[in-house]
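Now for our target.
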Amino acid sequence: MKIHQFNNSSAISQCLKGKVVHMYGDSTVRQWFEYLDQTGPYMIWDNAKNILVTYRVHGPPLSFIYIPTSELRYIANEIDGLVGGTNTVVVFSVWAHFSPFPIELYIRRLQSIRRAVIRLLNRAPDTLVVIRTANLRGLTPSESLNYSDWYTLQLDKVLRAVFKGFNVRLVDAWEMTLAHHLPHNIHPGRPIVKNMIDILLSYICTK
């Protein structure tokens, strides 16, 4: 696939014209939402171009406690509530909060999401599903005990295995952060996020 450059808000909005983009997951995918000119905590709406972009955090486990319980939703349940279709894009990233837990928990969560994606694509095969993979972190010695990149790599391998062969697209955040000269950070620097958004929008605009 050819990757296009979307260097300004006009190019981004032209690509997203007529699209509904639902983003689910941790703060690494919220970075994408915020990159797309955030106008509210959970929603971007452009009436003139008929663009809707939403973001919602995934359900527990979460390593912070300041989100209202009323806002906690599981990604599989959210996907099951979508109609889908040619103008619908589903984006999710789920990994950052799972490192301290047994990998079986992560596998079960991904299997649940996979079943929801299967149901979505069965009822609306033209829906675009994009998965943002895990990326390298910047870690202190104490953080490495529970959030080391080795743990994260295991999660990333599981994610790729669970969705292998499915009609989904990946944005390989692991390789993109590994290859870049910027320091590793759970929230990659803006140039890296820009590269990721270019891939996402290239998927959308060549759909």
